[in-house]
Amino acid sequence: MTSSWRRTIGNVRSFVGNATGGLRGGPNLASWVVAGTLAYFLWIKPAQELKREQEEKAALAAASDPYRYVEKRKPIPDPQETGLIYGNKNRAKKPEE
């Protein structure tokens, strides 16, 4: 019984070691640092910059058209009949006969 859990732990360690390329210690850590740095500069940072540029363009477009319609009030959720109610239009209907 004792050898069963030891074998399981050994199998898990072996799997993790193989999944990380079979490297141990310093070289393994260094390879993960290099891979993470490359991923950041090739995928994450350009995506963040693109998002920031799109937000800046949207802000400039919104500022350039002062007469653009902007919804200033949030609709009140009404799960009964109509879905959304603006302001004080929550009137009860007469019962149908």
UniProtKB/TrEMBL annotation:
State the organism of origin: Turnera subulata
Segments spanning the bilayer are 29-44
Q: Name the chain's protein.
A: Uncharacterized protein
UniProt keyword annotations, A-Z:
Membrane, Transmembrane, Transmembrane helix
Q: Where is this region: Disordered?
A: 73-97
